[in-house]
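Objective 1b: paired records.
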Amino acid sequence: MVEIIRSLCASRGINFAKLERELGFANGSIAKTNESTGVSRLKAIADYFGVTIEYLVTGKDPEDADASLYAKMKRDPTFWNYAKMAYFLPPAYQEQIYDYIEMVSAKADREQETVSA
């Protein structure tokens, strides 16, 4: 579990000390995280990184495909920032973004079909 948290910290460019400060945890407590750590503490860590408690414990996303995709997207800060920016755009601009994504996705599918053939 500690290695998963270490990896999540690295993806955000922070260390345990910064995570502890931001969550209000005692110094050195993250390194002592284990299976007997309280649910409220695990939830705070999971919420901070946008993952599930299950991911913290197992390193795997839940079996629910939508929850798994959501958790993966939240762990990608670049994707998450773009999603937040798009969310606050006027609907007409959102439609333009959706159209562009569909166009690029279709192009990628065609290229993949060509490679597979």
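Objective 1b, second protein:
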Amino acid sequence: MDSYIDERTDSTWNSVKLVYILHLIGAFTGLPVFIGAILSHVKRGDGGPAANSHLERQISVFWTFVITWIVGVMTTFLLGLGLIILFFGWVWFVWQMVIGLSKASDYEPI
């Protein structure tokens, strides 16, 4: 962790934490998820390696969640399978954001 201490003053960390918060709020309300995803794409490559690892992970988790959501919606009418996919996709998304925010608060890479 000592190699990442110099990055703590990097303003990108504020963006990383903001995106995690937007994603968590958006998991319950919707729109902030997309705002957070746009911010992640815009800020990608601006910070040090640890901050960028978070931005890359946020982007990856967002697109995985979008694909899961699409599959879940498309399979909703197949014996409720889609509802199960949507539920577990949502739980996974929230879990990833909580873990990421926890590591970002300690300035650790993900």
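The radius of gyration is 15 Å. The mean pLDDT is 89.
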